Amino acid sequence: MAFFDLADFDNHEQVVFCSDEKSGFKAIIAVHSTALGPAVGGCRMWDYASDEDALVDALRLSKGMTYKNAMAGLKMGGGKSVIIGDAKAIKSEALFKAFGEALNGLNGRYLSAEDVNITTADIAITNTVTPFVTGTEGKSGDPGPFTALGTFLGVKACVKHKFNRDDLSGLKVAVQGLGSVGYGLCEYLHNAGVELFVTDINRVALDKAATELGATIVGLDDIYDQDVDVYAPCALGASINDDTIKRIKASIIAGCANNQLAEPRHDQALVDAEILYAPDYVINAGGIINISFEENYCAEKATKKVEEIYHTLLDVFTKADQQNKPTGIIADEMAREIINQGGK
Fold first, then answer.
1. CB 63 within 8 A of CB 78
2. Which of 335, 228, 318 is closest to 280 using CA atoms?
3. pLDDT 10s digits, 50-74
4. What φ, ψ does residue 272 adopt, rounded to 5°?
């Protein structure tokens, strides 16, 4: 494998491969950019099919964090870490302490936090051996609720731009993934009068959504075929691809998953299909925005900052219309301009 020739290698500043034989810890830490400040981005634990899959995920996610933090107006660079393995089988105190020692090796160039299969309790263990974590208990805490809020506001921005509506009542939304953020988004949508169609591998979460939110449960592969107004991908990435774009009936794609597009070219494919796409790293920035208030934490200030996602997305959509370009391309251009100007 020619590492520097990988399509997802984007002049990353640093990529570190870490291991600890005693605890079974194996991880990849990718620092994409520290141009605006220390690289900040969560850690996810996943049972990847191959080490190369883990590397590609780390590269894509870390680049996304650079752009996400820039578009959110944060003085942070972009980085991400992935721990390789089944979270149900390998989690241990020793493993997360080994992760902490790996973070110490970067000496503050990268700060980690929660992501898929990582909890605030896991980060608390890591914090016992390193200061280079954020989103900790007693400070900014779990970023999930703020990611859900930002995604909900992003859906509202999409509806405003596409349908010129301020309210969501009566709309239909298909949500793929009922993790903590996906379920939080469903709660916001339900309270706004939305009819929900949901899918997940977790039957308990599905039954809860049906009982508490009146959601209609559909099959994992059937979620793309629903006759809805909005498709909200809230699981893992690449759910928008050659196959699914042909099947999606929604006029809007707006969800909290990272790396929603399987390939960059699908950005234009959505334009051709007359589907409005909310760039994932813009709409799902609520969690990292909350984390940015870690020191002297104030939930009110964090919430007010998250609310800016609504206006940022409207700006992206307006520019995309004016320049006749896909929304993802516009967001990338805006992010790079912010980075080149040093965050101004």
1. yes
2. 335
3. 999 999 999 999 999 999 999 999 9
4. -60, -30
What single string gives the DSSP state of each residue in 51-113? HHHHHHHHHHHHHHHHHHHHHTT-S-EEEEEEEES-HHHH--HHHHHHHHHHHHHHTTSEEB-
Task: Write the DSSP string, 133-187.
Answer: B-S-TTTT---HHHHHHHHHHHHHHHHHHHH--S--TT-EEEEE--SHHHHHHHH
Q: Which of 63, 80, 91, 156 does the annotation list as catalytic?
A: 80
Domains of the chain: 3-65+75-127 (3.40.50.10860), 144-340 (3.40.50.720)
Comparing CA positions, the residue from 282, 268, 320, 308 lying closest to residue 162 is 320
Annotate 216-241 with DSSP letters as a single string.
Answer: EE--TTGGGG---SEEEE-SSS--BS
68 annotated active-site: no
Q: Residues 275-311: pLDDT tens digits?
A: 999 999 999 999 999 999 998 899 999 999 999 999 9
